Structure formats: C-alpha cells, structure tokens
Amino acid sequence: MKKLFAIVAVMGVLTFGSTQLAQAQDAPAAEQTEQAAPAAQAAPADEAAAPATIEEAEGGIHKELKTKFIEGSAFFMSFVAIALVIGLAFCIERIIYLSLAEINTKKFIAAVEAALEKGDVEAAKDIARNTRGPIASIYYQGLMRIDQGIDVVEKSVVSYGGVQAGYLEKGCSWITLFIAMAPSLGFLGTVIGMVQAFDKIQQVGDISPTVVAGGMKVALITTIFGLIVALILQVFYNYILSKIEALTSDMEDSSITLLDMVIKYDLKYKK
C-alpha cells in the first residue's frame, strides 16, 4: 500500500505540474495571437482558413481536452484530476487483488477431497496452505479444527468467512468517496463560476454575453469533467462489486462442500 500511495502522489504532482505548465504555455501563445491579429486581418481569407484547418486537424482530442481543462479553471480542475487518479489507483488495486483471489475451485476441492478420502489430513492442509485466495484460507482454518468436531469446524468456517469477506471489500469505501467527491468538486466550481459571473456583472453594471461568458464557462466545464470522472469510477466500482459477489458466492458454496467432506471423514475414520 505504501508503494501504491507513493505512485498516486507522484501522479498527482505530475498532473498538477502539467496543468500549470500548459497554462503557462498558453499565456504567451495568447499574447502572440493578439499581436498577430492586425496582420491576419490584412491577409486574404483563403490563406487564413487553410492553416486554421491544419491546426485543428493536428490538435485533435488531446488539444481540445487540454484547452477545456484550462478554461475550466486549472485550480478546481486539478482537484478533479487528482480525484480521478487516486480513485483509479484504488480501483486497479482492488481488481488486481480480486483477480489473484480467484482460483480453479473445482480442481482445488477435488484435491482436498481426495486427500481426505485417504485419511491424510496433513496433505489436505498442505494443499490449502499452498493455495492462494480466500477459499483456500477458509479450508485451512476448517481443516485445522477437523479433530474437534463438525460444530467447531462450522463455526470456524463461518467466522473466518466473514473475515475474508471483509478483506475482499477493503478499500471500496474510498472508491465511493471519490465517486461522490468528483461531481461535488465540479458543482463547487459551478457555484464559484456563477459568483464570478455575477461579480463581473456588478462591476460592469451591464448584463451582456461577453461579461457573463467567462464565469458561465467555468461553471459548466467543471461540472462536466466532475460528472465524467464519477461515471468512469462508477463503472470500475460496479465491476469490482460483481467480482466480490462472485467470490462471496463461491466461498459459500465451497464452505458447504467442506462441511460435507468433514462429515464423510468423521463417518469413515472416527467410528
């Protein structure tokens, strides 16, 4: 987890730094555009249209996103970007953990059952100990208490199953936090953009599109990016929940199978 948070911190710093650099680069570009405006007006219309078309084609989606990102107030948009980065880091960590928790359950149960049919409890324990995942851990805890009776085994399986379910859901609360935080930051930018628009109206004393446009643009763009971030994280979160539900269902079925195997073992070797 320390490495994960270190990576997230570095990505957040790089995101914020790239935003500030892009903003700094766009400022001189804007000044050059204003200085070249009189010369551009004197040029023919055909010559001015061709370079503009080439620049639009070269810029593409990346340039458009960067422009909108800066227009939406880099301060608030940086927080939205950091929420996306950290939220995706938690999502990726959960997906990796849940993917590693999945095993070939049928093959594992067959191996444990074959060892118990031979009366070799230690071999069954070794199989469970050397297999990753929550199902193998539950089996190991149950097999550790196989000599204490079926009731003790059932209680240990139920108790440790709850522990493993908690491990599966670990970190999901942080994902839901960033899902809620991203649009909230967008709405905060919306409110501040509206306040800026009304401040300009108050200063100028006139309601005109040019006066209101700046604040309204900040208000709308921050909301759009916040909702996009929330949608992206929500898709990952639902995928994680589906994997958790599948693993939990597999754990319950496997636990019932373990109890059946313990009953057969008791009937065969504890007469």
From TrEMBL:
Domain of life: Bacteria
Domain MotA/TolQ/ExbB proton channel positions: 136-252
Topological type in the membrane: Multi-pass membrane protein
Localisation per UniProt entry: Cell membrane; Membrane
Signal peptide range in chain numbering: 1-24
Keywords: Cell membrane, Cell projection, Cilium, Flagellum, Membrane, Protein transport, Signal, Transmembrane, Transmembrane helix, Transport
Transcription listed as a keyword: no
GO-annotated cellular components: plasma membrane
Subcellular location, principal: membrane
One biological process term in Gene Ontology: protein import
Keyword GTP-binding attributed: no
Transmembrane residue ranges: 74-97, 174-198, 218-241
Family the UniProt entry places it in: Belongs to the exbB/tolQ family.
PANTHER family named among the record's database cross-references: BIOPOLYMER TRANSPORT PROTEIN EXBB (PTHR30625:SF15), PROTEIN TOLQ (PTHR30625)
Name of protein: Flagellar motor protein MotA
Organism: Bacteroides clarus
Lineage: Bacteria, Pseudomonadati, Bacteroidota, Bacteroidia, Bacteroidales
